[in-house]
Design brief:
single chain, mainly alpha, 6 helices, 45% helix, globular
């Protein structure tokens, strides 16, 4: 790739039409969360996540995840913690997709 040597990381990504590694990691985390919550992985969602109680009318979807307070700063980087905010912000049309492929398409349309 000629002409990219002196460009910043962001400029190289833009020229090549790529996204950041952080964006790819978040996308992968969201896909894995979908698989776990919809039973497509051989792991129970209760091992990693706690669903928010639906006792009250919530905005958004019915698979909101509870984010517990952690006194250790290192825990916020664990998969089960770092994905919660992004997952809870997704609209129900994305979260309640019928298949993994439709989840990926809807996620792409939503902007992740």
């Amino acid at each position: 790739m000629c002409g990219l040597k002196n460009k910043s990381y962001e400029e190289r990504l833009r020229v090549l039409g790529l996204t950041t590694l952080e964006t790819w990691r978040l996308r992968g985390d969201l896909i894995e969360t979908y698989k776990i919550l919809h039973g497509k992985e051989d792991i129970g969602h209760r091992q990693l996540f706690e669903l928010v109680s639906n006792d009250h009318a919530l905005r958004g979807h019915d698979l909101k995840l509870y984010k517990q307070y952690n006194r250790l700063n290192i825990r916020k980087h664990f998969f089960s913690q770092r994905v919660i905010d992004a997952w809870n912000q997704l609209p129900s049309s994305v979260v309640n997709a019928a298949s993994i492929n439709s989840f990926k398409r809807n996620l792409e349309r939503y902007g992740h």
